[in-house]
Specification:
about 450 residues; TIM Barrel; eight-stranded parallel beta sheet; hydrolase; GH; Glycosyl hydrolase
Length: about 450
């Protein structure tokens, strides 16, 4: 399992892209590498790179490429997020999408075309980097699609699919054209040529995609687009309030999201990436942060097909910067001046020791009723999966009773009759969720009951 860190620059936070300093970046990357991490996720600010719909600044692209090179000099691979988008309660949307020029991010043809041009240019600028882990389309861009965003860009699930497919295609075109421009023609017209690893293209969403039935971007958008399914785990979503900061429902939340992701993946074996997880001090006491970090990562390591865990974040936000929510100032593995914190020590101990991938996936799966008996879609599925929901409670009960300590898989009712699918995932028995969790026992079906 890979260990990574979301990179928050110690000097100037993400505003540092306005006056980029290679020396500051090198210092930060050296500290991150000292943890035993193997990758970082970096966040160029969209308005800095594309301040006008038809202007993509080459100097800004060069700065991104330099960050990738600096990280590589310390043995770190890099995932680059394109659309920032949203970071730590602040929106970074170009002026050509706001106020007098307000247009829909997801559906306006000129906006979609210009955004895709930026994604393609960014991918092309770094395509030849040997330490490029991949491109994520953006940081939780789905938060722009619905409340609680104060000014959402209304869209439908179908429009969300079209938008995501357009952005993924743009990133892949950029990876191909950028590699060919610098390394010569590729006869296969693919970034797969040669021994160089293939950069991943991913779509990152916050957990409303899994838990909020009103959110236009849902599990299918995560599972159907790109090369891996991304999850972001934050226990201030109700998990810690329900279970306590070190309760099973909190320290297993990242593991649970990974199992939900695997259920929605159409192809067994598709990689799942816990791309954001942290110990937010509004619900996790700083004294518990190290224990929360260790337990969360150990549970994640027990899930199948896990690409890795990428912790949020590298450095605390400086208190010289105003107006952040209080928890944002204390999420780093390092303090703002570079001192390693207890959570950082816990992360480093696991990263340096390594956690081997499990030999086999959990053999039991909890059945998620995504369809009605007649096969039509069932409403309220995501609410059932949210913290405190009926399905979430059933999964947690199974996880806590498992002899090997690993949480069960999740299988969709709509796919339960596909014997090839369940066999490929190693599912040999299933658990039905009782109608009344308070008064009913959870029963495990024998393998013979599976098709």
């Amino acid at each position: 399992m890979r260990f990574g860190v979301n990179y928050t620059p110690a000097v100037g936070w993400f505003h540092s892209w306005l006056d980029f300093s290679p020396s500051d970046t090198a210092r930060d990357m050296e500290q991150i590498a000292s943890l035993g991490a193997d990758h970082v996720r970096v966040f160029p600010l969209w308005p800095v790179v594309q301040p006008n719909r038809t202007l993509i600044r080459q100097a800004a692209l060069d700065d991104v490429a330099t960050v990738v090179d600096i990280a590589g000099s310390y043995g770190l691979d890099v995932n680059v997020d394109a659309l920032q988008g949203h970071l730590s309660s602040f929106d970074f949307v170009p002026s050509w999408l706001d106020s007098w020029h307000r247009r829909n991010l997801f559906t306006e043809p000129d906006v979609v075309a210009s955004t895709a041009a930026y994604v393609e240019a960014l991918a092309a600028a770094i395509a030849d980097k040997p330490n490029l882990l991949g491109i994520s389309i953006g940081n939780e861009v789905n938060q722009f699609a619905h409340a609680p965003h104060p000014a959402p860009h209304d869209t439908t699930a179908e429009q969300g699919h079209a938008w995501a497919a357009t952005m993924v295609a743009a990133a892949r075109r950029g990876l191909v054209s950028g590699r060919e421009a610098r390394l010569g023609p590729d006869p296969s017209a693919s970034v797969l040529a040669g021994s160089r690893p293939t950069p991943l293209v991913t779509v990152a969403q916050y957990d409303a995609a899994w838990y909020d039935d009103a959110q236009p971007f849902g599990p299918e958008h995560a599972a159907d687009h790109g090369d891996a399914t991304v999850t972001h785990s934050w226990v201030f979503n109700g998990s810690a309030a329900l279970h306590g900061p070190l309760g099973a429902g909190s320290v297993r939340h990242g593991e649970y999201l990974l199992q939900l992701a695997a259920a929605w993946n159409r192809e067994p074996g598709r990689l799942n990436w816990l791309q954001e997880v942290g110990a937010p001090t509004n619900v996790v006491d700083p004294a518990d942060a190290a224990a929360f970090t260790e337990q969360t990562i150990r549970h994640v390591a027990g899930a199948q097909d896990v690409l890795g865990v990428t912790w949020w974040c590298s450095h605390d936000v400086s208190r010289t910067l105003a107006d952040f929510p209080e928890l944002e100032y204390d999420l780093g593995l390092f303090t703002n001046d570079g001192r390693l914190k207890p959570a950082g020590e816990a992360f480093a101990a696991l990263a340096r020791s390594g956690l081997p991938a499990p030999a086999a996936p959990p053999s039991t799966a909890v059945v998620l009723d995504d369809v009605l008996p007649d096969g039509s879609p069932r409403s309220g599925v995501r609410a059932d999966c949210a913290p405190g929901g009926r399905f979430a409670a059933a999964w947690l009960a199974c996880a806590e009773s498992a002899e090997d300590g690993r949480g069960p898989q999740v299988v969709l009712r709509s796919r339960l009759s596909d014997a090839a699918h369940t066999a490929a995932r190693g599912i040999r028995s299933t658990v039905e969720v009782p109608d009344d969790l308070a008064g009913a026992a959870i029963s495990v079906a024998h393998p013979a009951t599976l098709p």
